């Protein structure tokens, strides 16, 4: 049996008989223009179904009577742009990164191309301004794990860090705590010594000096200056990849993090890789 309907005393509109917490629903019909627009959209959607790609299939999709695809158009435009870009880069493909840097015309193109490629491929990790973040190095300072010369940067971009190519740059810091090489108190002591390398005010650092010499100096050097051939960071400059607090250093010595950078050779064309090397070198941290 239908609920009893009544007229709302304020608006004079009939109610639907629905009530929630004392609020009664008014029987206000939708505007005619809205209904006609709604019906037109339904008719349009039916037409779209037949004329344009609309439904996914197992391995493809329906192409529609017009066989039109904005995706294919976008791919054609992208391919045309790449072809035009390569035409403008005459001489860049055969030039070394040093030759590109020395040639004003090639340099101008490489800088523009490299800046765009950096935004598309590198900024998600290193930041849009290349200032880096926790676990991702800044590219604007002079602190380079593997060298900041133009050729060094070029090689790193090509083959990556701890990536898949045989020429990738790789290093492995031992897990001194996890593998039981050092005891907890020894790790605390060596962390104090590492902190003292950049902050002489740290107290009690001498206790970890011999531990550092026996376990860390082989890679980081007796003075903690690092070794770019091994990718061992400089511990004296207060630039820290995973944090410079004692807790962060203890965590890294106990069970170190090892960052991975993809190898861009094969993902990006040679011209783009060279352009990236030149652009990154120009940011201010390149040597």
From TrEMBL:
- Positions annotated to bind heme c 1: 122, 125-126, 261
Q: Which terms are listed as keywords in the entry?
A: Cell inner membrane, Cell membrane, Electron transport, Heme, Hydrogen ion transport, Ion transport, Iron, Membrane, Metal-binding, Oxidoreductase, Repeat, Respiratory chain, Transmembrane, Transmembrane helix, Transport
Top-level taxon in the UniProt lineage: Bacteria
- Single annotated GO MF: iron ion binding
Give one Pfam hit by family name: FixP_N
Residues recorded as binding heme c 2, renumbered to this chain, are 173, 216, 219-220
| Cofactor(s) it depends on | heme c
Q: Where primarily located? A: membrane
Q: Name one GO biological process term.
A: proton transmembrane transport
Localization recorded for this chain is: Cell inner membrane
The UniProt transmembrane annotation reads 33-51
Q: Which residues form the Cytochrome c domain?
A: 109-198, 203-284
Q: Which InterPro entries match?
A: CcoP_N, CcoP_N_sf, Cyt_c-like_dom, Cyt_c-like_dom_sf, Cyt_C_IC, Cyt_c_oxidase_cbb3_su3, Cytochrome_c_Oxidase_Subunit
Q: How is the cofactor bound?
A: Binds 2 heme C groups per subunit.
GO CC aspect terms:
plasma membrane
Which pathway does it take part in?
Energy metabolism; oxidative phosphorylation
What function does this protein fulfil? Answer: C-type cytochrome. Part of the cbb3-type cytochrome c oxidase complex. FixP subunit is required for transferring electrons from donor cytochrome c via its heme groups to FixO subunit. From there, electrons are shuttled to the catalytic binuclear center of FixN subunit where oxygen reduction takes place. The complex also functions as a proton pump.
Q: Which PANTHER family does the entry link to?
A: CBB3-TYPE CYTOCHROME C OXIDASE SUBUNIT FIXP
Subunit-structure text? Component of the cbb3-type cytochrome c oxidase at least composed of FixN, FixO, FixQ and FixP.
Family to which the UniProt record says this protein belongs: Belongs to the CcoP / FixP family.
UniProt-recorded name of the protein: Cbb3-type cytochrome c oxidase subunit
Origin species, per record, is: Methyloraptor flagellatus
Gene behind this protein: ccoP
């Amino acid at each position: 049996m239908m609920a009893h309907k009544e007229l709302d005393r304020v608006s004079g509109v009939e109610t639907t008989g629905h009530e929630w917490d004392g609020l009664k629903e008014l029987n206000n019909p939708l505007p005619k223009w809205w209904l006609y627009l709604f019906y037109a959209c339904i008719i349009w959607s039916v037409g779209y179904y037949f004329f344009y790609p609309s439904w996914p299939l197992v391995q493809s999709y329906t192409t529609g009577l017009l066989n039109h695809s904005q995706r294919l158009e976008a791919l054609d435009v992208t391919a045309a742009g790449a072809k035009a870009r390569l035409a403008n880069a005459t001489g860049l493909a055969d030039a070394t990164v040093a030759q590109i840097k020395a040639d004003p015309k090639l340099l101008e193109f490489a800088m523009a191309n490299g800046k765009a490629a950096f935004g598309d491929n590198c900024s998600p990790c290193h930041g849009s301004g290349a200032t880096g973040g926790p676990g991702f190095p800044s590219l604007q300072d002079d602190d380079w794990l593997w060298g900041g010369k133009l050729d060094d940067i070029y090689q790193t971009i090509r083959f990556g860090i701890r990536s898949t190519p045989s020429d990738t740059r790789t290093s492995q810091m031992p897990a001194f705590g996890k593998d039981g090489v050092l005891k907890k108190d020894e790790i605390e002591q060596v962390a104090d010594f590492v902190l003292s390398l950049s902050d002489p005010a740290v107290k009690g650092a001498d206790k970890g000096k011999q531990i550092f010499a026996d376990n860390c100096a082989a890679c980081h050097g007796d003075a903690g200056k690092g070794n770019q051939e091994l990718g061992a960071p400089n511990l004296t400059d207060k630039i820290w990849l995973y944090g410079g607090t004692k807790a962060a250093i203890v965590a890294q010595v106990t069970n170190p993090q090892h960052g991975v950078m993809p190898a861009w050779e094969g993902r990006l064309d040679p011209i783009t890789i060279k352009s990236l090397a030149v652009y990154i070198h120009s940011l201010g941290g390149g040597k």
